[in-house]
Amino acid sequence: MESISFHGNNDRIQVGINHGSINNSVSPGYDWQRFLSRTNPVEDKKALKRKKGGPAPGTCEWVLRTEEITAWLGSEPTVGPESQPTQVLWLHGNPGTGKSIMAVYLAEELAATFSNTDGGTLAYFFCDSGFDTRNTAISVIKGLLYQLVEQHAKLLDYLLPKYHARGAELFASFDALWEIFITMMADENTGRKYCIIDALDECDRESQDTLLQQLEETFRSPNVSPNVRILVTSRPYPEIRESLQIFPNKDLASFPQRQKDVNIFIEEKVNFLAKRKKYTDKVKGQIREILQDKADGTFLWIGLACGELKDIPSSSVVRTLQRIPKGLTSLYTKLLEAALKDSESTGNDFRHLLSCVVVSSRPLTVLELAEACQLYQEEEDLETRLQFTHEYIESCRLMVIIQDEKVLLLHKSIKDFLVGTGSSNFIQELEAHARLAYRCVDLLIAQSRDANQSRSGFSVYATYGWANHARMAESSFTVQCSQAEFFEVDSPCREWWLRRVRAEYGFETLPTRFSIFHVAAEWGICALVDHAAELGAQKSDRECFRVDVNCVNHSGKTPLEHAAGSRWPNIVNALLKRGGMVTTEVVKAAAGNWFYGEAVMALLLDRCGDQITITDEVVKAAAGNEENGKTVMALLLDRCGDQITITDEVVKAAAGNGGNGEAVVALLLDRCGDQITITDEVVKAAAGNWFYGEAVMALLLDRCRDLITISDEVVSTIAGAFNDKIMTQLLDRRGDQITITDEVVSTIAGAFNDKIMTQLLDRRGDQITITDEVVKAAAGNEGEWRSSDGTPP
To answer: How far from the centroid of its chain's Cα atoms is residue 327's Cα?
Structure first.
């Protein structure tokens, strides 16, 4: 990895000589690395291999010689069958057919090849529905960015300025992160980049749709860099096929070499069993034939079937294998029936255990699961409790495994089976979420009563987990009588929980005076809105203000204002039904809602349109909305156009929009061009737009040429913003209006903007005078970047 040293008194970041991970000293406000590294894809790959086993010796090797992989690795973006661009490749297959093992093989082989030949850079991400850090679109991109930066420190140049401009907010925006990702991937100085995204179908549905839409939009463009290559594996769900069929794609089962891999895998399993159970050659041959007949190319079925044979004597093994049904669903049914039969209890504890494993937002440890399911809690000795729980988990008959003391489903298809129709809904998912929420609240109540009680691992999970499970339970969650004290209007127990929440990462700024309505709004728990409203109806007039749906927290926000800017549109509707008042601040929050701005704004207009006034602040919030700006603005113009005036401040907000500035500005010019004046402030906002500044400036120059004056102040702003591309654009298109003043040169020197300084010296050197002020500005720059040998860049 390249090294960068900072000389002088730089208080933001120091990157020294790195061998492996980046070691940085960053002030708390600029700790960008912690936002990228919630999960480490390299460690995730190792854990996946331990869980599923790596490729059997002699398998998967053929994939590197296939036409599809050869074209994907090719030196130039070619056109495949039916004019499909080969920069994206989709490999798909049914559950258990070895997609992830193939992805592991490719990741390891390509990483080794690129390391030895310097032929490219590889990044990968293994999605997993069981981890909340590995099943979202933002997590995928952050994991890929983390690996790219680890391998090429120079790529930080695309990240750090944007992070310094926007802080932690940057890492909540998929569009902003995707823009950085594609720019890093396209960087010519660091060569070709290859990314593998495994098990896309394990992302939540919203993230899945986001990634698919972005892949389509990005790679349909003829301008995408040939340096960018992405391979996706997933199940062939219709919604995934609809998006990815425009790219080269292949069913893994259709490769003729795949059957050879299946036979090798069977041989490995049979030899292992034969050595353990001392099979004769005849028995070995019979087992081999039955496995080949029933496996149907499914590695997972082979592994599970052989797992069922490990304790069967050789005299019975053939009969046992013959009784194991074909197909994963039939096999899971048999395993489930056997586990229920072997269970010492009525089966409710077994169902509860599986339910917790299925719906938990991250894998629980063995002890956490014991506490969640209240297994062996009467056993005070932790070692004994742990042993008993291990034994109970083993009764799940291969559906659940223990890895690194965490309890995991063996495969996602098991979750699909347990919550789907194949098992007659053995687990009701909404009820499972509700039950886990109740258990979490019970634990929090007990701990709030006893300050000396130790804080167990599951209590940490309960702190943030109960509210999320309550939301996901939907109508299955109701306030239990036994938990009334937690949900009272004035609840010391809930206030104790809120203090604990504020100590957790990401909730430090949660306001005080946070009512039960605010809790409902923050976490999207509709059932709490109805509960709180009913509590209010029971209070006297004197007490009623304490449970008013329009009460404000310490920051002055009502629950509805809080909800209007949240990820949970349903909670907005619930609060409106209970009398939530639609103020200007509520409408403004909806207009600026990154996640569901259009949906929430449409809901407010449908329900309360005659009460709503679209102020300049509301329109500004829509114009600056970095995720939904265009759609929210279009909705406002369609539904409330007669109330809207496009002021300079609105245009400025659109020009500086770092998520979709070009689209919002284009919309305003198309729909309201006669109202728009392009002031210096608008041009400066475009110049300072790190993500879309170049595109916005080009749009303004094309559409508003006669309205734009490039003042000295604008040029100084561009010089100080490190945006050499915009400077090039202006010099090329409006060079006759640009004067390089002493102030501009001083600004460049003070910012140590070597690219712009070099550009101006090359193109306008005769206009530049190095005055004392310029020298002082350069001398005062203590954040000078130098290369690893100490020389200036």
So the answer is: 33
